Amino acid sequence: MPRTKILALLGFLLFVWTRSAKAEVLKIAIPSTTQAVLAFTIARDKGYYRSEGLDVELILMSAPTASRALLSGDVTVATVGGAGLPPVLRGSPFKFLFTTYNRAMFWLYAKPELRDVKALKGRRVGVSGIGSGPDSLLREILRQHGLDPSRDVAVLSLGVMPTIFAGLQGGIVDAAMLSPPVTFKAEEGGFRELVSFPKQDLVELQGSILVRDASLQSDPSQMERFIRGTYKGFLYIKENRAGTIPIVARYLQVTDGVAAKAYDTVIRPSLTQDGTLNQETQAKAVEHVLKRLELKEAPPLAKIFDFSLARKVIAEIQSKGWKPGP
Length: 326
Fold this sequence. Notes:
By secondary structure, the protein is an alpha/beta fold.
């Protein structure tokens, strides 16, 4: 090999090694490996974080555990949505900087003999975790139908979606809060859809960036770079249907046909406009959680949400005309 080519190769390898060595390790808590965290997994796998000098580790843990890990500093970001609101409303020093979705991607399915929500009185309902987003949604819909979530229904924490569905199939619970693709299996299995939450007038955050105030104040540049990578992952989902469907199929372990159905009917319609929320939507996101916690009033929205860095990143990326690749 000619000397010039050897030197060029060595130079390239040195550049790659140096860039890798300088990448900042960022530990991120994710509550699931479903469509809720697509923006983060795509940003990691497509190298969007790496291009920002970040070595992002996505660590799977339940939403309540993620909030505790965030408070202790064991992770820098928790990608929880609705489950992040209770600790914030109770005074935890967290802020939402970005959110992938603002519509609830959950359905309440029950045994076929249960014809409506009121029929759940005295029954058991499975959710991923007590205090999770689905748990909050369930309690709100129970209240709307005249049931006391604490006394009239036994809400059970069953963990991940396959386990929740297995609990419904096996009779451990009489109804369950499910998300795609498990919802398709529930329908095929003859279970009855009681509530389609995407059709409800409720705002439910999912795939959000929740950070400690201290992290935001101490290293805003790091947060800005993380948001930039995440926003590119978000744009990939929003603008590249053909590329996203195989990713959804792989993560959810379903066929491309099922993944396409999930993308068209659930994922794409549930996306926020650009990862931020206006004040009216912010208030609606807080409203039903506030009721569940039986709190009289919430902190000012500015203490819960801060989309300033996200809006800065969005304006910058739009000005450059960046588009997601294949």
